[in-house]
Task: structure prediction
Amino acid sequence: MVNFTSLPSNVQLQTISYLDVRSTYLGLSNVCKSLNELVANNKLVAFIMLNQLIDNGLPQDFINARTTQEMIEILKSTYNSLLPDIELPFYAFKSDGGVDENEPRHFFGPLFRAKEVQSICTKIGENFNVHAALAYNYYIPEDLEMRAELPLDDEEIVNLEEHLLSDKFNVINYLEQQPIDNYNLEVNYTALNKLAIVKGLRISRAGKFSCPVRTLMFYISNEKIEEEDDEMVKLIGNLSSTLEMRALYIKHSASLPQIYMTNVEKMKPWAEICEKNDPLMNIIIFKNSQRASKAKPMAWIQFNNSNKKLFHIKLQKPNFFSGKFLLTKLLDCDDLTIQEEDEIEETNIDISYISFRGQLINDSL
Result:
């Protein structure tokens, strides 16, 4: 019988890739001293395990720039569910939904920063795209008062200070210069040299909104997402009902992203994990292994109850997502114009915030 430790290293690594993190580090490493050394001192093993958790999206130069210990520490922090997650610093830099009445307090920039008193509101219509990036623009001067708690190294803190001093963007002036009927807005941003590992999200509709968002779709990527050119966005990015989603999967399931978890009864035939139905929310979480396009679909979420204000979900291991750019589809709204005594003739889409939770790692060293 062939001894595993005598096999070529590429065969060993290929075999280990079929194990999960727990089986590798608590099982295989305890078999014998040789296997313990193979697992404990091999950054390729840590790289394989990390890729399992976050969608196999890490480029080879990610591992080339890191030591074995650095790789293992990243893996530990990603796998350890007891470590607190942070709000990931995504900044919305582009939207085709405009800003309601060009009012600065409705500007989409801080959409991904949890702040209960804010109201992000589009112009009239539905099915809008909001693009975001990991960026220094997410931060505000008050954040520097707790700089020790920021997920930034010393150099990045200096960069943040310089950014806050030099950034001359004024949302009031910017919107005053826009035609009132202009829906397509884009602003500059300063990218953070980070990679986000998404482990969960929170969506808030808190506030007296007459048109709170009802259905959303989320994508993530290591590159900017061009929705008009991305096949996966065009395939499933515009569906605002479970009936539409089911009909599409019945016809084209082989070419559509696999579903990891859902509580939607109609979609359970295509899901790995089926949760009980929730009268307040419809949820579809996609598998993180999708490689058909640059944009990786993460989740489709729909509020079923107009009184539901806050949604919170934690992604499950090993189905985390990684990336630097987000595309959020604001597909439709709950029409509460009568309930809120709002005399508008057509609806827009209102939301308080979307907070992505997880961890940040350096993109390169």
Notes: The domain at 86-362 is CATH 2.60.120.260 (Jelly Rolls). The radius of gyration is 22 Å.
